[in-house]
TrEMBL record:
It comes from the Bacteria. This is Molybdopterin-dependent oxidoreductase. InterPro entries: Ig_E-set (IPR014756), OxRdtase_Mopterin-bd_dom (IPR000572), OxRdtase_Mopterin-bd_sf (IPR036374). The chain crosses the membrane at residues 12-33, 64-85, 97-115, 121-140, 160-182. It comes from Microlunatus aurantiacus. Residues 236-388 form the Oxidoreductase molybdopterin-binding domain. Keywords: Membrane, Transmembrane, Transmembrane helix.
Amino acid sequence: MQQVSSIRLGRIAGGVAGLVGLAVAELGAGLIARDGSPVSDLAEVVTAVLPAAWISDSTGAFGAGARIALLAAVVVVTLVLAVVSGQLELKRKQLSLAVYLPAGVVTLLAVSTQVGPGALGYVPAVLGLSAGYLTLRLLIAELRRPPGALEPIAAERRNFLKTAGLVALGGIVVAGVGRMLVQASNRVAEVRTKIVLPPAANPAPTVPVGTDLDVAGLTRYITPNASFYRIDTALQLPVIDPETWTLKVTGLVSTPVTLTYAELLARPLTEHLTTLTCMSNQVGGDLAGNAVWLGLPVHQVLAEAGPQAGADMVLSVSQDGWSAATPLSTLTDPDVSALLAVGMNGEPLSPEHGFPVRMVVPGLYGDVSATKWVTELKVTTFDDDSGYWAQKGWSERGPIKIASRIDIPTRSVVEPGTVIVAGVAWAQTTGISKVEVQVDDGPWQDTELADTVGPDTWRQWAYDWTAEPGDYEIRVRATDADGRVQTDKDVPPFPSAASGLHTVPVKVRPA
Ligand SMILES: Nc1nc2c(c(=O)[nH]1)N[C@H]1C(S)=C(S)[C@@H](COP(=O)(O)O)O[C@H]1N2
Ligand SMILES: [Mo]
């Protein structure tokens, strides 16, 4: 009798642990704002192997009912396995691994069919499996504890059941929160796919073919969205419904302004190419990208709000509390194409790059201007307020430094003969007028400069180097349109952006 009920307690422990594992996996998926979870990944795999007729409705579409049934089936099978694992673990310590390990492998394989490259997509499954296994070990250890001398066995069991019940309840709450997060991000992702961006009232000039020298390995003039660098402090991507998003212009203004997403899209929008770069970029680093941004000029919104005398800064604040401090004079200058951007290379912003609205300001590092998921522009002063990175000691002022980078050769060993040395250079708002390369201590050589649409973007450059066998160092320097030459003074990124000349070692093989 006693034996039977202790097996039952083991099963309960297993089931509760399974529930906790599922819950943690869901929450993990919600927190990284994945558009799925390990449970739905498993369901997808089942869908792929089941005959289509079983799960399609009369129109051939995948029925919503079938989808829910599949998800439920995955949860039920998981819980049954978890119950079995509890029984095994009670029999012998770690015997539950006989269930957890194969289940883990199958889950991770299922996840791998649904997520892109990168480890992040696997995190929810790994967390869920670990949480389930650990919970099971803890609960079983609790069951195994010899009963206290004074405590009757029945009381021990009641205590165990109480603990298990509380753990299960916690699991359900956690799972619920995870589901809500996943669903919110799914819904916003769907709303995003339906957005049709209006054509620009002020379109960017057609990008001349000559902006791309079409050299293999050289950074493209326009950075595809998928490879655009991403820098932010968000552990969890903000999920913002454009239908409820608003931008508030507050602070030292005569008329506070509130703008909805629909109102923003209805305004005449401007399209502008701006190369965005990060203050923490190393010399030669890749924290820079060039895109066609579509948005509302910031100076228009500020003009409507009417900044008061004395204000000298705009603190742009994101939904997740990040902020950037930008000089008011830059943002009210109609000649600077600072945008409240909704579009990036013809698409609505992606969640990673600030959906639904972000700032982009030519000439300033992203750190002090390019607030993603922006919800407020507070007109204020540098004396009274400061941005997120400035509070951590980074410089708040200072335009982008002239920079140039060598992209190729990518290999440090090349064959003798003509070797193309090429890269990009930027000096936003002024523009690049010259790029030179130097081999060892030789003379600075002019390079071929690609076309550009304007001073706010980088320019490609290329140089045909006649390489003789030997070991060399190649460095690059740029000159801006005002004739200023890039400094060779090596400075690290902190606190006000790196400087110095990008230098790469190259070995030319013997002929
Ligand atoms: N909300 C928010 N916006 C942000 C940041 C951030 O951490 N949070 N990082 C900024 C920094 S430091 C840079 S360089 C740019 C990078 O933009 P990207 O990720 O679209 O390339 O975003 C800026 N906007
Ligand atoms: Mo940055």
